[in-house]
Design a protein that fits this description.
Length: about 450
Amino acid sequence: MLPSQVLAAGLLVTICGMAQRSWAMTPDASLADPRLRVPISLRELYLPVEELLGQTSERVRLPLHTVDHLRRRRHHVLCKARPISEVMAALADVTMTRPGTTRWVPGGVPPRSYTLRPDLLCQETERRLQRERSTELRSRIAQAVAAGSLSDEEHRNLSSTNPRLAHASPTMIRLVAEFSPGLWDAVLRGERQMIPYAQLTLRQQAIVRQTWRGVFSTTSTKASDGTRVVTGTFDGDRDYPLTKVEFRLSGIPQRPSLWVMMRHTLDGGSGAPNFLGLPGRVHPSLPKWLQDAIETEQTTWRKAHSPANTTDPVLQQRVTIQQQFVEPSDGKQRTTTLGGALLQIHEQTGIPILAHGDPGFDDYYRRSGGRMLHEPIENARVWEALQQVGERWRVTWEWKRGWILVRSLNVVLGERDGLDLTPIWLDQPKPKGETSPAPAR
C-alpha cells in the first residue's frame, strides 16, 4: 500500500471514530443503546451528581461517571417516567459553563459506560473567571496597601477620587498593608484568617489599638456562673490579649466583599465591613470578567424568554407557588427555597426540571442568610413564575427539549473557589431518629 493510501486509511479510521463518539454523545444515543431508553422518575432536591449517577446506574446496570469537581455538585432533579437519555442530556446542559460544553463520553465500543466531561473550553472559561476575579481583588488590595503609607491628608485626597477607599480609615488601611501576600492568597481562596493579638508584631498591635480606638462594643462571655454581658468603649491605650484580627471574604462569589474584624470573644467583635468597597449592583460598574460572564448567561435568558418559548403551550399553564412546601425527603413543611419553588411548579404541571442546587445564601463564604420566598406567586403562567423565581434567587432558566433547565453562576464560581455549597440545614448533625431541620425562616 502506498504511503498516501496508508494516510488516507488512517484519516478515515480517525474520522469514523470521531463520528461514532460524537454520535454516541448526542441525546438520541438511546436509539442505539436500549439501556438509555429505560424510563426513570426522580423527585430529589440538592442531590449530588455522584448520587444521581449512582441511583441511575443501579436501576439499569449502566455505569455512569463524571469528573472529580462535578461529583459533589448538587442538583434539583424532578421528572416522571422520562428516558434516562433525557436526564443525561439535561444534566450535560446544566453542568456546562458557556461558551464551553459538557458531553457524555462513551467508554468502549459498544459503550460499556458513559462519563460526563466538560470540554477544554468549558474548563478554561471557569478558570478564567476565577483568575480574573482574583486579579480584580488583588488589584483592589494593592490600591489599599499603596494607600497605607499616605498621611491622613493624602488619604482624604485619594478618597475623593477613589470612592472605594472613602469609608476605610487610614489606620485600617495601614493594618491591611502590614500583612504578607500569603495571607491574601488564603483569603482569596475563601479561607477565613484569624490572627491572635499575641502573634501580631508590636507595630501591628499598635495599629490594632489605634484602629478600634473609641469603638463601643457589647459582647458576651461565658463565666462559671453563666453568661455575662460586657459593654465598654475601647480606649486604644491598653493591650487586648484575647482579641483576634479576622480577615475574610463575605457576600456572594460574583461580588465578594473583604471584611477586617477585631474579634473580642467567640461571639462578639467589631470591624470594617466591605473594606475594599467592591462595586454594587450597577451593571456598568462591574469588572469586565463579571460583565462577560453575566452577559453569557443573559443571552440564554433572553433566548428562553423569546416569543417562540414563552408562547409554548406547556409554559402557558397556570401555577401558584406558596411560601411553604412539603420536603420530599421527610414529608415536613419547609419555607420555600429555590428547590421548593421548582418542586411546586413540577408537581402542578408535570414538567421535568433539572436545576443547580443553589442554596441561595446571601453570604456564601459564611453559608448564611438563605433566600426564601416571602410572598406567594399566585396564578402565574409557568414562564412568568420562572421569571420571578430567577429574580428572587439570581438564577437563569432555559426551555430546552421539553425540560426546564435552571443555572446559577454562583454555583460555578463558588465551586471553583472550593466553597462548601451544601445547604446548612442538610449537613447539621441530627439526633437519632430525627430528620434534617428546616432552613431558618
